[in-house]
UniProtKB/TrEMBL annotation:
Pfam families: WD40 (PF00400). The gene is Tecpr2. It comes from Vidua chalybeata. This is TCPR2 protein. One of its GO terms (biological process) is protein exit from endoplasmic reticulum. Transmembrane segments: none annotated.
Length: 212
């Protein structure tokens, strides 16, 4: 018996002017006018997160059509990677060009959810540009990779406000992709792809030939 084809929905794609118009194209710093470049992007059903060259994270809430801004204290540096997660609380992880990583626990209007913006910092293990971030589905684990091949595991306790981080793997080339599921971390570098088993702390390479 032939299967019935599902109905097709046609969609029109257009620039998100309502989003782009809420982000400045230039900022004034002293006597200088600095151009703002958009450097990182992630989306889910609730938010659109945009990182910028001035160290500002622009977070657009799709339900209330409202833009919010978050930044790092200290010097202005480019955001290189952002990663959203919707679990019991809404979380966004941000990485920068110098290796700083921060997690923002967002405020929610829903009953029983987080009512105060909180930030967690991954303390000074990365020393170079963040190239990949990956969440566990429950938001208790964050993995971050940089362009020198370091992968850091951060354990988050949102109730206690604690973030403990440690170096778990170091590759000889830049990390280009991370994905985590069921105690297995998928790692892609410029040279190879591997599976890192977080409980056993063992590595299984995918394929035998290095990338060219």
């Amino acid at each position: 018996m032939a299967s019935v084809a599902s109905p097709v929905t046609f969609k029109e794609f257009c620039p998100l002017y309502y989003l782009l118009n809420a982000i400045p194209t230039k900022i004034q710093k002293g006597f200088r006018s600095i151009v703002v470049y958009l450097t990182a992007l992630d989306t889910n059903g609730d938010y659109i997160a945009v990182g910028s060259s001035i160290g500002m994270l622009y977070l657009y809430c799709r339900h209330v059509n409202q833009m919010k801004k978050y930044n790092f204290e200290g010097r202005c540096e480019s955001i290189t990677f952002v990663k959203l997660l919707s679990c019991f609380d809404d979380l966004v992880a941000v990485g920068t060009a110098s290796g700083r990583v921060a997690v923002f626990q967002l405020v929610s209007s829903l009953p029983g959810r987080n009512k105060q913006l909180r930030r967690f910092d991954v303390a000074g293990i990365h020393k170079s540009s963040i190239t990949a971030l990956a969440w566990s589905p429950n938001g208790m684990k964050l993995f971050s990779g940089d362009d020198k091949g370091k992968i850091v595991y951060s354990a988050l306790d949102l109730d206690q406000g604690i973030c403990n981080s440690s170096l778990v793997l170091e590759e000889p080339s830049s990390i280009v992709q991370l994905d985590y599921n069921q105690k297995v971390l998928l790692v892609s570098t410029l040279q190879r792809t591997l599976l890192f088993y977080t409980e056993e702390k063992s590595v299984n390479q995918v394929g035998t030939q290095p990338r060219k």
